[in-house]
Amino acid sequence: MGPEFWPTLTLTGIVILALIIMIGSILEQKKGISPKVESNEKKNTIGAVVCAGILLLFIISISYIGFLLSAFISMMVLAYALGERNKLLLLFFSFIMVAVIYLSFGKLLFVPMPRGVWIFRELSYYLY
Amino acid sequence: MEQLLTGFWTVLQPVNILMMLIGMVLGMIIGILPGVGGPMGVALLIPFTFTMEPIQGLLIMVALYVTSTYGGSITSILFKIPGEAPAIVTTFDGYELTKKGQSGRALGVAMFSSCLGGTFSVIVLILIAPRLSAVALKFGEAEYFAMAVLGLSVCAGIGGGSVKKNALSAVAGLFLATWGIDEVTGHPRFTFDTSGLLMGITFIPAAIGLFAIGEVIEHVETSLKKKGEEGYVAQERVKIGLPPLTDLLRMKWLYLRSAILGTFLGILPGVGATTASFFGYSEAVRWSRDPRKFGTGIIDGVAAPETANNAACGGAMVPLLTLGIPGSATTAVMIGAFVIHGIRPGPMMIVQQAKLVYAIFAGLFFSNLLIILGGILGIKFLVKVLDVSYSKIGAGILLFAVIGSYSMRNSMADVWITFGFGVMSYFMRRYGYGLAPMVLGMILGPLCETSLQRAMIIADYDPLFLITRPISGSLLALSVLSFLYPWIRRLITGKK
Questions:
Q1: Closest listed residue to residue B268, CA positions, set B308, B312, B305
Q2: Which helix or strand (DSSP H or E) is residue B6 part of?
């Protein structure tokens, strides 16, 4: 029983269970039972994708423009995308969030937050 | 007994009281906010507790864990919006009471019942945990393997939704846990030649992704209201008080039944507070003199599920503290927190870390009392968090998810793990695959694998070794039964 035993076992399990679920739903479809009951609630799939997309850009940008700036911009964009339209409130909210992160993680817990590259790196040394 | 007193003494230190108060406020807020659950709260809190003393970090989590279950029922009663899944049942009668103008009475009973149920389960925990640990100390590798298998089999069988899909979640969790260096042989697996995956998929970032990011994305998709519809209309001034003694005496059997039932269900791995609250309610209906009154707004309909769900919270700590096997999604994330603080949950814990374990006992006890304190002093203010629109809450959660998972090892690789798990959990929620089974799989995976490997080395690769030992054999038989239970039940009821 080497290191490959357990992964092989679990992968086999995944394949078998996936096959069972697949066959099950194919049989259900043949019987004419609709597999999903659509709810009356309107789904905001675009909103979900946008939200995930902003998060993705946020994570990518951390390595380039540093954590704090990236978080500040992302928070504004995210809150806007999620429905907040008051511009002053957006600015205020993002500032507060970044300040909380800066003080708690940066100053209290000494987390070396990513500084980004180039000028952003230089600038970040003034803060932490 | 002496250790227990030491535990109480530890918790009563000013710093620790402060930690528990913070945990209580956070727990109530998390409970009140719909779409922000206990597992998410604990997962996001772990990075903050990283640099604290283990006792303080764990006490915050304990307080948050206990009070969030009560917090969920506040909005159930006031607005018919369960803040947490275990509070769904409370809406049945709780909201009806609010419509009758008796919200204060309902909140008071919910508060008292939660405290009572929780305290009962903590007492049970204190009485049986040391004895169970003593038994568990005799466990060999085969027994550990069997125990882990039992935990997995139960969680796949219950946890709501399709059994097959939950089983797949659990097995996928087991598989994901194998990434990184193999503990027994030291061989790297599925690292894809990147250093970020050498340590495997770190559990906390994965849990943050599963519970925080997936939850926000799903919330955005299903319930983002148009502008102007955000927030909830404020209720009349909420007054809350302890329920009159006559009510309590009248419902004494109901309390006892719900408390016992809830504690027992909580102890079973995989059965959480949600199931317990449903059982508590249905049993109250069954034993009631006029069951038709349930659902029209009676106090009993609030007391029963509230007692049961908080009792289940304490019950779920039994397998966690004695065997290192989580009983629910929140306790599974808590295991991650234990590991971060350098504590390996299991039967040795109560021996090696007696001070800590007894402090947790005391912490659980006080947390249940804090429910009353928070309930009386806090509800008025805490309900105000519902006025904060989800645009800010959601954005804030995502920010804390990112910095939280980064800060665990100061590694961007962990942030990517969080993101990946977040996206995956969105699809899992959408297509009905349980998250709790996956988390349990990831927690129990290493235990399962290493104990099996070691047991096989001891037994010279004879698989019968697992079955012929009395304890492991019967545990494995029990696992098979519990795994097949849903199908057996369907066969029996189908034939009728």
A1: B312
A2: helix B2-11
Residues 6+ apart with CB under 8 A from B327: B266, B267, B268, B269, B270, B271, B272, B315, B316, B317, B318, B319, B320
Query: Any bridge partners for residue B188, and if so which?
Result: B181
CA distance A12 to chain B (A): 9
ipTM value for the complex:
0.86
**pLDDT band for position B226 (50/70/90)?**
very low
What is the pLDDT confidence band of residue B227, given thresholds at 50, 70 and 90? very low
Residue B180, helix vs strand vs coil: strand
Residue with tokens 């961007």: B412
Nearest to A63 among B389, B396, B412 (CB): B412
pLDDT tier at B63 (50, 70, 90 boundaries)? Answer: very high
Residues of B in contact with A28 (CB under 8 A): none
Give yes or no for A79 touching B (CB within 8 A).
Answer: yes
pTM of the model: 0.81
Which of B189, B204, B391, B433 to probe the A interface (max A CBs under 10 A)? B391
Residue ranges of domains in chain A: 1-37, 38-127
Q: What is the pLDDT of residues A80-105, one digit of tens each?
A: 888 778 888 888 888 888 888 888 88
- Residue B312's identity, in one-letter code, is A
Strand partners, B189: B180
Which residues between 210 and 239 in chain B have a beta carbon less than 8 angstroms from any beta carbon of chain A?
213, 216-218, 220-227, 230
Task: Confirm or reject contact between A120 and chain B (CB < 8 A).
Answer: no
Interchain CB distance below 8 Å, A78 and B398: yes
Instruction: Please tell me the predicted confidence (pLDDT) of residue A34.
Output: 56
Alpha carbon B77 to its chain's center: 22
Look at chain A and count its residues: 128
- The DSSP secondary-structure symbol of B347 reads T
The per-residue pLDDT for B60 is: 92
The 3-class secondary structure across B226-254, one letter per residue, is: CCCCCCCCCCCCCCCCCCCHHHHHHCHHH
- At A115 the three-state DSSP class reads coil
Specify the DSSP element, H or E, that contains B189: strand B188-189
Is B407–A20 a contact, with Cβ atoms under 8 angstroms apart? no
pLDDT for the residue numbered B119: 93
Residue B332 makes CB contacts below 8 A (sequence gap 6+) with B39, B207, B326, B436, B439, B440, B443
pLDDT tens sequence across A4-61: 788 888 888 889 988 988 888 888 887 765 555 555 456 777 878 888 888 898 888 8
Amino acid letter for position B3:
Q
Chain A residue at shortest CA distance from B415: A59
Q: How many angstroms separate the CA of residue A124 from the nearest CA in chain B? A: 16
Identify which of B164, B184, B204 has the alpha carbon closest to the alpha carbon of residue B402. B204
For B61, list phi and psi in degrees, rounded to 5.
-65, -40
User: How far off is chain A from B408, nearest CA to CA, in Å?
Assistant: 9
Across chain B, mean pLDDT equals 81
B288 touches A at CB < 8 Å: no
- Whether B102 and chain A come into contact, CB under 8 Å, resolves to no
What lies within 8 Å, CB to CB, of A59 at 6+ separation is B402, B412, B415, B416, B419
Do residues B219 and B429 lie in contact, with contact meaning Cβ atoms separated by under 8 Å?
A: no
pLDDT on residue B233 = 44
